[in-house]
Amino acid sequence: MTAVRERTEVTPYLSLLTTMALFGSAFTSAKVVVGELPHDVAAALRFGGGAVILLVLLRLRPGSERFSWRDLTRAGSAGLVGLFAYNFFFFWGLSLAPSLDGVIIVPVLSPVLTTLFFLVTGREPSSRTRVGGLAFGIGGAVVFFAGISGTGGVSGSRLAGDFAFLAAAACWAAYSIMSKKVLRGIEPLRATTYATGVGAVALALVALPSLRGVEWSAVSAGTWANVAFLAIGPTAIAYLCYYHGLRSVSPVTATTTMFAVPVFGTVTSVLFLGESFTAIQVLGALTTVAGALLAVTSERSVMANKENQ
């Protein structure tokens, strides 16, 4: 019984770690795609493909004929935030700024913003340590932005991209908070499918004007391979794993695991894209991570009592 209980307690974290590994690789892969395709088209292809895969998996599952407009509305609303809005800003940011910027900004600030929401709304305990951690993390983000000048200058394009990444982080925080309620009464596969489907339709509608300008014959095989990878790994598998993990832990805990994304994202960005940090950006990134960890892990024993509320 003890072994079963320990395995049950570990499984959500393994699911979340799998998600973060795939999310980290998505920054590099998506950067390749937006090099040849408009950012809105790239996002639509990624989630259109992911939605098809999830629909097939759902149809193959016993009881797939069960349908509820209420479930579709609940999961779809989360999908509009966590898939449509998040990925619109995510791909837009990648079209303007280096993927390494997104690797730091999105996964580090998402848990900070999630924790800040719970503190402001009184749903998590406040303390000087947690507030100080948030301030420390935000200060590190400011330093990170300041370090842009050492990598080719502070261009308006790159700053716009980084602010798009910041908007993506806010969307992911909101998605994590909304999805916890969505999972009450809906199994992860169905919730993920509905959310991805609605998000994909919204992304496709936004991408329609850009489709006519795409020279499909000029798109390389490598780009199509990356589109396929994004649809299967960082979308269908990653979002399903995230819902599996989020079902058992709080939004704060789930978004905290995003601190693993910079590790995977940095390695792939450096190896496959040849990107690099300035010394100031490294300092800002470390400061942000330290502050964010302090904010979300302090008073852990109190948070644990509220884990599944």
From TrEMBL:
Ranges in coiled-coil conformation: none
Location of this chain's protein in the cell: Membrane
Lyase as UniProt keyword: no
Main location class: membrane
Family: Belongs to the EamA transporter family.
Domain of life: Bacteria
Domain EamA: 13-144, 160-296
Matching InterPro entries: AA-Vitamin_Transporters (IPR050638), EamA_dom (IPR000620), EmrE-like (IPR037185)
GO cellular component: membrane
Name the record gives this protein: Threonine/homoserine efflux transporter RhtA
Pfam families found in the cross-reference section: EamA
Keywords: Membrane, Transmembrane, Transmembrane helix
Membrane topology per record: Multi-pass membrane protein
Organism (species): Amycolatopsis pretoriensis
Taxonomy of the source species: Bacteria, Bacillati, Actinomycetota, Actinomycetes, Pseudonocardiales
Transmembrane segments: 12-35, 41-60, 72-92, 104-122, 134-154, 160-179, 191-211, 223-242, 254-273, 279-296
